[in-house]
Amino acid sequence: MLRGEIVTLRTIEREDVEVLHGIDSAYETWPEISYSPYAPKSLDEVLKAFDGEDESTYRGTDSFVPFAIDVGGEVVGTCCFWGIDAHNRRAHLGIGLGQEHRGRGIGTDTCKVLLHYAFVDRGLHRVQLEVLATNAAAIRSYEKAGFREDGRMRESAWVRGEFVDEVYMSVLAPEWTGRTSTS
């Protein structure tokens, strides 16, 4: 388990899947989590994938590491590293919180915990993410955690009938402020 000031990040258990599926399949936040058209799977399909050998967004692989975000014993979201590239020592960060849990510092704390894990435990050099430019709250949260904007892809995401810019952000290990000095 990985602990922050607010959150505990832990392995996703079968009993978490129903809550996480509800967050991941919410129409209101679908564009923030998935750049594909809204097409959620049923809970039965998601549980079958989790229990079986099919690909599941709740089970890890060499290039994908998911966590449940736990606050006070309640699962409030999920986060992950995806596209882990061991040769170039980089990964993408993803996070999804239930709407009722936003604006409370949970996302920022989650990112700080993930960055510590990435740079200290995994030895990564770069953590990057993509976020819709219309998601100002997420951008502020990422900036508080230490991310900086790398650039924008103009009108690169089709979201509910219009093109939206994507903001690319990253943190490099040497600039990460969570590192503690041993001297």
CATH homologous superfamily of the domain at 2-128 - what is it?
Gcn5-related N-acetyltransferase (GNAT)
Distance between the termini: 27 Å
Q: What's the Cα radius of gyration?
A: 16 Å
Strands of the widest sheet, in order across it, are 1-2-3-4-5-6-8-7
**Largest sheet data:** 8 strands, mixed
Task: Find the CATH topology of the domain at 2-128.
Answer: Aminopeptidase
What is the CATH-assigned architecture of the domain at 2-128? 3-Layer(aba) Sandwich
**Any low-confidence stretches, pLDDT <50, length ≥5?**
none
The residue fraction in helices comes out at 25-40%
- Gross morphology is globular
Name of the CATH first level of the domain at 2-128: Alpha Beta
Strand content range? 25-35%
Helices, by number, come to: 5
Q: How confident overall, as mean pLDDT?
A: 90
Number of strands: 8
Helix/strand class = alpha+beta
- SSE run: EEHHHEEEHEHEE
Keyphrases for this structure?
183 residues; alpha+beta; Aminopeptidase; 8-stranded mixed sheet; 5 helices
What's the short story on this structure?
By secondary structure, this protein is of the alpha+beta class. The protein is built from five helices and eight strands; from the N terminus they run E-E-H-H-H-E-E-E-H-E-H-E-E.
How is this structure best described in words?
The structure is a single chain. This protein is an alpha+beta fold and 183 residues long. The protein has a domain at 2-128: Aminopeptidase. Helices cover 26% and strands 34% of the residues. The protein contains 5 helices and 8 strands, in the order E-E-H-H-H-E-E-E-H-E-H-E-E. The protein has helices at 17-24, 30-33, 43-51, 106-121, 136-145, and strands spanning 2-3, 8-10, 64-71, 74-85, 90-97, 126-132, 148-159, 162-172. The chain has an 8-stranded mixed beta sheet with strand order 1-2-3-4-5-6-8-7, with helices on both faces. Helix 4 crosses helix 5. The longest helix is centred in the middle third of the chain and has 16 residues, at 106-121. The mean pLDDT is 90.
